[in-house]
Amino acid sequence: MSLAIEREFTFPFSLCGKRFVLRVPLKLPLDHPVPELTHRLVLVHNLSCAVERDLCSALNKFVTTELAKYEDELAEKSINSVKSEIVDIDRVLKNWTSAFSQEVLEYSTVEPPSDDDVFSEVYHSLVHSASLETLLSLEHGYALIVQRKLEQRDQELLNLENRHRREMEEAVKLLGITVTDEQINHIAQRHIEKAETLENRWASELCSLLDMQRQEYRDWVMKLYEGSQMSDAVQRHLHAISGLMHDTRDEIEAPVYSRREESFTVHLGAQLKTSHNLRLFSSNVLDLCRHRPQKNQSGSLSAHRLQMAISLYSNSLSSLVLLVDNRLNSFTGIKREFAKVCEQSTDFHFPSLKQQFEQIEQSILEGKDWRLRKKASNAEDGDRISIKSSASFDRDERSVQMQSGDFYITRHSNLAEVHIVFHLVSDDSICSSVSEISSRHPIIMGYRNIIKCCFRYNVRNITLPLLLVHEMSEEMTIPWCLKRAELVFKCVKGFIMELGLWNSQESCTIQFLVPKTLSDETFASLSNMMPTIFRMSNPVMAKS
Fold it and tell me: pTM of the predicted model, to two decimals?
């Protein structure tokens, strides 16, 4: 029964030798404090301020008394219902037990940890022990097996494509002589079917290989933790992998990766200053995801692989913002290249990229359904549209396409320098030199939401495209780059100062990424701009 009643408040008072009575209907409990309601009554009824104190006291006493009476009535009715066996006592006890188990920690039901929770704790314990080298060797060996499988797939697909091209060229030469247009179409259709069959076969083999590696790796990790020493199976596997890694290092020449970069330490905050690390560097965005082969060094012990393993289940996660289009399941452009990087090795901790996309698609559809239901419930009767038009409207609203500024998140344990990738939806207008953007642009607000998400979930390293693009074009002049960078610098500074208050003043690292083809002159100008916008941390020089 809802605790909402209406009672009439009566207040007799005397003023200038005359008797007056104030009658006001009140809904209990009150929506406002008693003093505020008293002041409103004085203003509405033009009462003298001399009676305000007595009115407040009488109103307070009336509210307390009436609420107590109503609660006593409810309690009496409940007791009588139980005595007369109208209420099912077992059902009431069940409801109270459920409420206590859900709201009170002392009475809550302890749920057993899932397999993923147990594996994460075991892995985190092993990477901080002497077993770290064993785990990294296993991971690297599995990655080499997958890479060789991918090379075989690419080579077989290339051979099939060359064979089809030669066959089509020969058929075109004989067109009109011994070959007709219908036969040409039949040959093209047969080529497409063979290519699709081969791609599906390799996709099935790779999926089976990744699933097998994931299961074997997780089983070996549990055995290694339970036995506190390497099992015979792990030792035999490592021995086989060591020869594979030796052969691979002889075949691969380590390329030289050089980056232009500048680092700064800044203090941000209104009153209590917090130091943050800023870094400006130029690179291909996918270079942060690829593992780099290093000459004369075991790939399993590379610095990036080691750092990613140690910080995987910690409060120092690394993230990257990837600018994508508004289609979730279309692997085109940079999304296609990113998917190729992800399939270079098995992800032993998180679902595959395809599985994560399927989960994201389902979440997007559920969110749009919720918005549609909320919009329909808030709509007035006169504004409702017809059944036919609403059906087409629902189909448009339930599409998986997103708007500029939206983002979705994928998790990874097999990338070089990032654990989390924020896929931020962008459009072609952001690259145009004609259209101007402001601090309220959807992409800038997307940056704010991403930084807010990082601060909330302890993501300490954030990499943002400074110019809001991954590739340079001819129309991106030096003035255009400086103006765009100044806007992003100032907005990010404001976001950190605003959102940093929620995070107990903990420092973080913000990396500003610029395209690799950016000129040295522009890079130097951007580097000189940062100290003018952010407050640098200057050392104190003591003179003796």
Answer: 0.74
| Contact between 466 and 449 (Cβ < 8 Å) | no
Rounded to whole angstroms, the Cα distance separating 489 from 511 reads 11
Nearest CA to 405 among 453, 378, 440?
A: 440
Q: What token pair was written down for 195?
A: 């290519």
What's the burial of 299, exposed, middle or buried (CB within 10 Å: 0-12/13-18/19+)? buried
Question: Burial level of 290, CB count in 10 A (0-12/13-18/19+)?
Answer: middle
Give the C-alpha separation, 317 to 115, whole Å.
22
Q: Rounded distance, CA 354 to CA 352, Å?
A: 5
Burial readout 60-70 (b: 16 or more C-beta within 10 A, e: otherwise): eebbeebbeeb
Beta strands 420-425 and 18-28, pairing class: unpaired
Q: 229-283: per-residue pLDDT in tens?
A: 455 555 555 555 555 555 544 444 445 557 889 999 888 876 777 888 999 999 9
Kindly give the residue spans of alpha helices, DSSP state H, lying in 228-251: 232-251
C-alpha angle with apex 491: 489 to 496, nearest 5 degrees? 95
For the chain, report the end-to-end CA distance as a whole number of angstroms. Answer: 79
